[in-house]
Specification:
The complex is a heterodimer of chains A (386) and B (310).
Chain A lengths: L1 E7 L8 E4 L13 E2 L2 E2 L1 E6 L5 H14 L21 E10 L2 E10 L3 E9 L2 E7 L4 E3 L13 H13 L13 H8 L7 H10 L1 E5 L8 H12 L3 H11 L6 E5 L5 E5 L5 E2 H4 L2 H14 L7 E5 L7 H14 L4 E5 L16 E4 L5 E3 L14 H6 L8
Chain B lengths: L1 H7 L17 H12 L10 H9 L14 E5 L9 H10 L1 E2 L4 E6 L13 H5 L2 E2 L6 H8 L3 H19 L5 H13 L6 H12 L5 H14 L1 H4 L4 H25 L17 H12 L7 E2 L7 H5 L6
Parallel strand pairs in B: 1-3
Antiparallel strand pairs in B: 2-3, 4-5
Classes of the chains: A alpha+beta (386), B mainly alpha (310).
């Protein structure tokens, strides 16, 4: 699980911003928000343009290092626009069955890796300082990777240097971590396998009510719904969220599939569903299709289109169905700011100057279960941290 | 008193300029609530600032969401012709969250009870007020001249002397001087410090007399000798007093004043509505009625954060 994430000089975060999942308070309620003594369900509030989306994208950056995803396709520059430095520093601390793994790296415009370092339980495993061509690979045996062919890695990296002026140089340096995972043979219970598993099951979801997505996306979804009982499951999900409806799936003569609301005449689902229902469907589709065992989900503006009760239901759904996943949701919906659903250590405020503070640390008042957190937020109890 | 409390516990982050005070009687307030929300108000979400501002400042309505804390502080006042056990109990069980609808603190017999300064804890724990039907002024006499009262009055005394004896008419200037006096904490340099405060800030005749008088008053107070400022000293006093009253509250509630010293006195264990019921019972007895002397509004401090008593 992710224990702590830090990023410095990333987009609007000029200074270091920390997301600390280990800062768990002693509250004896809403225990479902805590998983393995780390924050499992987190809700982030913040005024507009404080960087809630940026924070999620920054966390996902590690997936790019492992070649799993291109996080910021359109942007060449991730560093803060006011900063003199064009280097962005990322730091991840993971915890897997009592072992702690720290992975840090620095990227420079445009997304060139210039520094990389891995630690396990305070033992340095490797260090690659690409800028000063300084490398340390002495401790690879600690993770059972001493057979890794370092020379070949160095070669690949030098080749890139030589062709620096050619067009191909846009292919960026392969992070050593990716090399290590891709070329090593590890025991099944190795921390490297756990790390890879975790990172490949991280996901970022932006919720839109927009139907205009590539058609293939929905074709896959419909195909998925065609499997036994899946349509029914989807229907149950919608009903649980408060959307009362019955669904039917038909295969059209041209081989296409279409989902309908069941009425006396069938009503096509996507053309007629409300924006709330579409947004809900998009979340469901992302979570369910492919049966991913999500390790970490960042859901941006997760309830932008929902009635507050539906948002409430969705959080409960996550708590019940994804007890082991770390889920970070951003929201403007203060109805969710309650101790019945969440807890003061899992409710965060992202401030305009780029600090992330849990409600329990945003006031000197001792927060108790009976407190009406929403009312306190609105009347300005935490205003210094907004 | 609240102003002093907020000065001694800056952690509450209450800026005196943001405090909005509304004076009323608890039964009047009760009637205003019923008028606005009907007889079943207890089932609804009362917006107290709205109720009181609507009545007093109809052109400048205020709402619950404008306030971080809402405190209702009233004296028990059994002698009030409008006194009603039922109404006061309803209010006590409804208003129990300062950050939301508001927190009601009833003081027995009145707010001055925090100035009680007994010789021993046992004396305080067993202390009762035997005349529940007498007006407050009788009780006030009893707490007059306790050490606590003298300390509480100190800032006002300084101000009075500056104004009446040395004719400093500028209020801001007086307040500044008083604050400086209260911030002194070094007995060795006390005389010099007082001299410079008076000489630098004020243009008064008979300076030597003034210096002598303030030197005398301040050095008589214990705080400078202990090398703490007035507020730090008062904070300690309040901490002791609050703990004393908390112990008594639990004692009343459990019908046992001789609690084991290991019993943890926590604010969460105090039930103000239970205490009110027991006070009602005790004060309406035909033979020897009484009220336990107890101040609850000082519980604002531990209610905010228990750490503030350490």
């Amino acid at each position: 699980m992710l224990k702590r994430f830090e990023v410095e000089n990333y987009k609007n975060f000029k200074d270091k911003i920390t997301v600390d999942f280990a800062k768990v308070g002693g509250y004896q309620f809403s225990m479902e928000c805590i998983t393995n003594n780390l924050i499992g369900k987190m809700l982030i509030y913040g005024r507009n343009a404080t960087g809630k989306t940026n924070l999620g994208r920054a966390i996902m950056d590690i997936r790019e290092n492992l070649g799993l995803q291109i996080v910021n396709r359109t942007e060449r520059n991730c560093s803060n626009a006011d900063s003199e430095s064009n280097r962005t520093k990322y730091s991840y601390v993971f915890q897997f069955d009592g072992e702690e793994l720290r992975y840090e790296y620095i990227k420079e415009v445009p997304k060139e890796l210039c520094y990389e370092e891995l630690w396990i339980d305070n033992q340095q495993i490797f260090l690659c300082d690409f800028m000063h061509t300084h490398f340390e690979f002495d401790n690879l045996n600690l993770i059972g990777a001493d057979t890794i062919n370092i020379d070949r890695y160095m070669e690949s990296f030098n080749r890139d240097e030589e062709s620096i002026d050619s067009e191909e140089s846009s292919m960026y340096r392969v992070p050593f971590l990716r090399w290590l995972i891709g070329n090593g043979v590890y025991r099944e219970d190795s921390i490297m396998i756990k790390l890879m598993d975790y990172i490949s099951n991280m996901m970022f979801i932006t919720v839109g009510s927009n139907f205009f997505r590539p058609k293939i996306v929905y074709d896959n979804f419909f195909e998925y719904l065609e499997k036994d009982n899946e349509l029914r499951n989807f229907e149950i999900f919608l009903n649980e969220m408060g959307v009362q409806c019955q669904l039917e799936l038909l295969k059209l003569p041209d081989g296409q599939r279409q989902v309908y609301f069941k009425h006396n005449t069938l009503v096509p689902f996507f053309e007629n569903a409300s924006s709330g229902t579409i947004a809900l469907t998009n979340i469901y589709r992302r979570l369910i299709v492919g049966k991913r065992k999500a390790s970490f989900i960042y859901i941006d503006e997760f309830d932008a289109f929902y009635h507050y009760e539906m948002a409430d239901n969705l959080v409960k759904y996550f708590k019940n169905n994804y007890p082991q996943s770390q889920i970070v949701m951003t929201s403007h919906n203060t109805n969710l700011m309650t101790n019945q659903l969440m807890r003061p250590d899992c409710l965060m405020i992202l401030s305009r100057d780029g600090r992330l503070t849990a409600l329990c640390d945003a006031t000197t008042r001792e927060l108790r279960e009976g407190h009406n957190l929403e009312k306190m937020y609105i009347s300005g109890e935490f205003v210094q941290y907004e | 008193m609240f102003s002093l409390l907020f000065d001694c516990f800056p952690e509450l982050h209450i800026d005196k300029d943001d405090v909005w005070i509304y004076g009323t009687n608890i039964y009047q307030l009760y009637n205003d609530i019923v008028k606005e929300y009907g007889d079943d108000w207890i089932e609804t979400d009362i917006d107290l600032p709205f109720v009181v501002s609507k009545k007093k400042y109809p052109n400048e309505l205020r709402y619950k969401s404008d306030f971080i804390n809402i405190f209702l502080v009233f004296d028990y006042e059994r002698q009030d012709p409008n006194f009603s056990e039922e109404k006061i109990l309803q209010m006590q069980s409804y208003f129990k969250d300062a950050t939301d609808v508001g927190q009601l603190y009833i003081n027995y017999p009145m707010v001055e009870s925090y100035q009680e300064f007994p010789d021993s804890l046992d004396e305080f724990l067993s202390k009762k007020w035997q005349y529940p039907m007498k007006p407050g002024k009788y009780y006030k006499k009893q707490v007059k001249n306790t050490i606590m009262q003298e300390y509480v009055e100190l800032p006002n005394r300084f101000d009075e002397i500056l104004f009446e004896r040395f004719h400093v008419t500028d209020q801001t200037l007086r307040t500044q001087c008083v604050r400086k006096f209260l911030s002194l904490n070094n007995a060795d340099t006390l005389f010099g410090d007082i001299t410079s405060i008076l000489v630098d800030n004020l243009d008064i005749t008979c300076k030597d007399t003034a210096i002598g008088q303030f030197y005398d008053m301040i050095s008589r107070g214990q705080y400078v000798k202990k090398e703490v400022t007035y507020w730090q000293y008062m904070r300690q006093m309040f901490q002791t007093i609050i703990k004393m009253h908390m112990r008594k509250a639990i004692g009343i509630q459990l019908h046992n004043m001789n609690l084991n010293s290991e019993y943890e006195i926590e604010i969460g264990r105090i039930e103000l509505d239970t205490i009110l019921k027991l006070q009602n019972e005790a004060s309406q007895k035909a033979m020897d009625p009484f009220i336990w002397i107890l101040n609850t509004c000082i519980f604002i401090i531990p209610e905010y954060n228990g750490e503030l008593l350490k």
